C-alpha cells in the first residue's frame, strides 16, 4: 500500500463495518429506516468513501457512538458514491440540502436535525 493510499484510502482498503451500523442500499432500506423512526430516533450518516474529511469525521463519530451508552438510537450508513440516487431522494423528500459528510436525524418520519463536516457529533442526536 502506497503512502497516498494510507492517507486517502486505497482500493485495497475495506471499510470495517462497525456492529451498530445498518446500511442503506436501496429505497426500500430508506423506507424501512424512516418507518423505524416512529419507534425510536434514527440517524443517517451520509459518507463519501473517497473524501479524507468524510473519513476523518466518520472515525470520530464512530468513537463517540462506541463510548455512548444510549441504545435508543439506530444508526444508518449511506455510501454516497455507491448510492447517490438515495442521497438525492433524501434531499428532495425532506428538503435538506445535500452535503458530505452529513448526519440527518429522524423522529416520527421527519428530519428533526442535520449537521455536516466537523459539526457532526452525537450531541446532534440526543
From TrEMBL:
InterPro entries associated with the record: BrxC, Thioredoxin-like_sf
Coiled-coil stretches noted in the UniProt entry, renumbered to this chain: none
The organism's place on the tree of life at top rank: Bacteria
NCBIfam families: B_thiol_YtxJ
Protein's name according to its UniProt entry: Bacillithiol system redox-active protein YtxJ
Organism field: Chryseobacterium turcicum
Encoding gene, per UniProt annotation: ytxJ
